[in-house]
Amino acid sequence: MKIKSIKAESFGKLKDASFEFSPKINIVCGENESGKSSVGRFVRFMLYGFTSRGSEISNNDKKKYMPWDESVCKGQMEIERTDGDSFSVRREQGQKGHSLIADKDGTPVFTDKSAGEVFFGVDADTFDRTALISAGDVAFEDTEALAGAVKNMVFSADSTVDSDKALKILENYKKSILSKNKKSGRLAEARLEREELISRQREVRELHKELLGAQSNLEKTRASIDQNAEKLKKLAEERANLESLRAYELTKKIDDAKCRVDESRSEYEKKSIEMTFDSFIPDRAYLSAMNDTALALGKADTLLESAKSELAAASEALRTSFRDADQLKFNGLLDDSGKKPKDILDDIALLKKEQKSAKKTAIILTFLIITLPIAAFFYVKSSKIKKKLAELYSAFECEDLQTLEKRLSEYDASSSAADSAKQRCKAAKDALVIAENARMKCAGELADMLDKTGCGVSISDTSALMDTALRHVKKLDSDVSDLELKKNALSSADAIYNGILASVPDVDELREKAAKYDPDIPIRDESKIKMEYDFCTSANSILADKEREYEKKTAVLAGNMEKPDELAARINLLSEEISRLELNYDALDLASGSIELAHERMRGNFSPRLTSRASELFKEITGGKYEGLFVDKDFGLTFLETGSSTPRSVEYLSSGALDAAYLSLRIALADMLYDETPVLVFDDAFVRFDRPRLEKICGVLLKISEKYQIIVLSCRDTESEILKDKANVIRI
């Protein structure tokens, strides 16, 4: 697959940025922070969208590349498959993501799938671990880690996923279900628990029979009590009229208390409406938080002023660390130029030598009339060289060449003396940024809190903001106190009302009882009615004792006995769990065996192919110094040096050669894992290689570009210089 062009409408630092790509090698050059890495991440975004691996910005592309001035990342990519078909991929990602793949006629195709999965046949993690190669991906100091990464890439397309650990996890899971001796594990526990429940089920059946007998006796006793109660009916009616009188008096108390509650609630609700800000009512906790935030803003202002003072002091210390102010200024210009003193001195020496030679030649040729034109040429050349030297020392604001040479020779000593002062300046600048951010955060939070309570204030003047907040808190505190008083009055009235209601089981029943009060029924002394009632009630005492005896027996049996249906349900659940665990155990056993068998087959079939392709690439990258790079069946790594017949462990390789070995293996894996030839993206992947090794790598890239489209993202011009007219160079 080839990418013909991309348009990043909004993605990180890229804004309406369009790029045309060559089907072979493309080099995107730019300084650090220029947005070149954003080009690579945009390609990955168009293929798979965002994949976040944590809340930290470094591991979360959505946070890292979401533009500050809008809340959506979007763009378009035009691609062409190996079979010649062209497609357009469009993706937008805000709070929700949306992507569309359309054919050359604009018809949507491959819905509900990412472009990477459709065209490559691999997921986002596989693409990240193979075709998307950054500087950190080709940095290996530990040969054991290199071998492990290769093995994991072969088995899972991810150098961080260890398939051997997966087997160990499966074995541990099997043990958690059932140990080898069959005596421990959840399956053994479930079987034992089921046997215990079946035994208890038999005991419960016997207890249940006894309970049914006690319940039958209890029902007979209660029936006798009900029959005897009819004899008390007349006395009960007289007592009921007395209770109706009390109910009538109590309902009047309830109505009076309810009236007081309604009056208090009206006053409280009126005050609540006065203090409501867009459905929000501030409380003391909110006022305390607002007050704390205002004080925190004051502290933040103090810290900011302290940070500014420290930066001024650090800058002054840097200035005074130089005995010569002109040398300080010169060192700054030289640092900004990115050049080294030795390189400039070498250039001066070469120019002076050329000037001297040209001048000498011109003088000699002047004496020969016939060679005067040639002499004039050398005079001009000498003049141009002199002009170059003048431009050179002028560029660094030196009055002459001798001053420039003197400043260059004193650069190292003066720069070394100012290192600690520079470090202090950097620390002071960092502290200033932190203090400014803290101040803005406090100001924003305080402004939001004020706005929430109807007091909008600009955050530009933090002193005014803090004063306004403290005054506003004081005013709100008075309102909250008034609201609390009204709330307490309501609570007091409500407590009295609820206290009366609490003494009444059912108010409606109480009112019904009050309505039944009959003033025509004579009201006798309650003690006489009670005496007669108690006398009749004593006749039921024996039956009541008997009732309690049966109730107690029934309660004891019911309380100590498990429910038969619940026991049966638990036994059924355990039986289902046992069946499920047995199936899981068999499945895990089959899975671990299958993985081990797959490992053996993979080692036998994959290693020779990987070795062959990786050896070719390794030989070319190292300029023929090494004949081959071998991956054995256990994915151990060895190499063969040209002219030698004995393979050696990669532990003998330098760190640069180890990086080249992994790069070779990773490109070789790309040949084998993808359905469609992928685009290879190298994001500053070659920064650790020296110039000769980089030239070999560029040669390899040029060769494999016949098959792969290559995008190199680099902060230097070395790759574009080596490949020259053979690559599409894009500068940003």
Number of strand segments: 14
Spans of at least 5 consecutive residues with low confidence: 155-162
Sheet with most strands = 6 strands, antiparallel
**Oligomer designation:** single chain
- State the share of residues found in helices, binned by percent: 55-70%
Q: What's the arrangement of strands in the largest beta sheet?
A: 2-1-4-5-6-7
Secondary-structure content class:
alpha/beta
Polypeptide structure, described:
The protein is α/β, with parallel strands linked by helices and 732 residues long. Helix content is 65%, strand content 10%. The protein is built from 23 helices and 14 strands. The chain has helices at residues 36-48, 61-65, 115-120, 124-130, 143-156, 163-177, 186-229, 233-274, 284-320, 325-337, 341-366, 372-395, 401-409, 411-417, 419-452, 462-502, 507-515, 526-538, 541-560, 564-621, 655-673, 691-704, 718-723; strands spanning 2-11, 14-20, 25-29, 73-80, 86-93, 97-103, 108-109, 132-134, 626-631, 637-641, 648-649, 680-683, 710-714, 728-731. The chain has a six-stranded antiparallel sheet, covered by helices on one side. It has a five-stranded parallel sheet with strand order 8-12-13-3-14. A hairpin with a 3-residue loop joins strand 5 (86-93) and strand 6 (97-103). The longest helix has 58 residues, at 564-621. It is elongated and about 160 Å long. Mean pLDDT is 82; it is low at 155-162.
